[in-house]
């Protein structure tokens, strides 16, 4: 489940029910699969939104959209959480299968009118909405710096690094920073927790706008560091990705 920010964004597209067909599937880590789904007709959304997907006769689950709003094929990055829809999507869903979609959902979207620096922070499959936001900002000709920090445990969990390196080569204002929290050995990448690395790189974040997506602990920790570095709360927009186990723990805690 995705818990969206408190932001109320104007001009969000209406929620619709749409049929899609799986046209591509790629396992990019041991437990994350990129799905490409072709909608039966036009589907409007804003960069940073998500949708509820249903397949295999299982209850629907929310997954963030990784593609740009102008793309004709929708891209999703889905992590296998060991059960239910996420496991089916990663281990069983096949090209040609039909998928039901309800969306778009969420309001942690790329904001129009901001011409200052953009800071995107992703953890794991939270890379999906950050990819959409970064791509859309650059495609619109955003001139200020755009930073994408991608936190994962180790080298084996890092994906799309080559893609973002190529994107940085085409856009001088874009910077991609992978961060490994538990590297297995020596690495050329930054190490530690992604929020700490961001805090070390920016003495003052006033005037920036931040977008975050990933595990709740990562998002909450990173937000605390952004605020401590002078970023205004109204400039922080994000989704924390709660698994079914997370939901049960939160319910038990009252």
From TrEMBL:
Cofactor: [2Fe-2S] cluster
Span of domain FAD-binding FR-type: 15-111
GO MF, one annotated term: oxidoreductase activity
Signal sequence interval, chain numbering: none
Database matches in PROSITE patterns: FAD_FR
Pfam families registered for this protein in UniProt: FAD_binding_6, NAD_binding_1
PANTHER family: NADH OXIDOREDUCTASE HCR (PTHR47354), PROTEIN RFBI (PTHR47354:SF5)
Protein name per Swiss-Prot or TrEMBL: Oxidoreductase
């Amino acid at each position: 489940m995705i818990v969206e920010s408190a932001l109320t964004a104007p001009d969000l597209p209406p929620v619709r029910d749409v049929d899609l067909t799986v046209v591509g599937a790629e396992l990019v880590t041991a437990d994350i699969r990129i799905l490409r789904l072709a909608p039966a007709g036009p589907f409007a959304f804003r960069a940073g939104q998500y949708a509820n997907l249903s397949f295999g006769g299982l209850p629907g689950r929310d997954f963030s959209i990784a593609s740009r709003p102008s793309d004709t094929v929708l891209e999703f990055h889905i992590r296998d959480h060991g059960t239910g829809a996420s496991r089916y999507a990663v281990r069983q869903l096949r090209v040609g299968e039909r998928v039901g979609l309800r969306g778009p959902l969420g309001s942690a979207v790329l904001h129009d009118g901001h011409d200052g620096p953009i800071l995107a922070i992703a953890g794991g499959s939270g890379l999906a909405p950050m990819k959409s936001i970064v791509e859309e900002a650059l495609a619109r000709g955003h001139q200020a710096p755009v930073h994408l920090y991608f936190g994962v445990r180790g080298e084996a969990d890092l994906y799309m690094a080559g893609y973002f390196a190529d994107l940085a080569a085409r856009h001088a204002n874009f910077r991609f920073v992978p961060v490994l929290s538990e590297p297995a050995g020596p690495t050329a990448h930054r190490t530690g927790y992604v929020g700490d690395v961001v805090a070390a790189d920016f003495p003052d974040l006033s005037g920036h706008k931040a977008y975050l997506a990933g595990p709740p602990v990562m998002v909450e920790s990173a937000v605390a560091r952004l605020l401590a570095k002078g970023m205004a709360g109204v400039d922080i927009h994000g989704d924390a990705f709660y698994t079914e186990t997370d939901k049960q723990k939160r319910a038990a805690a009252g």
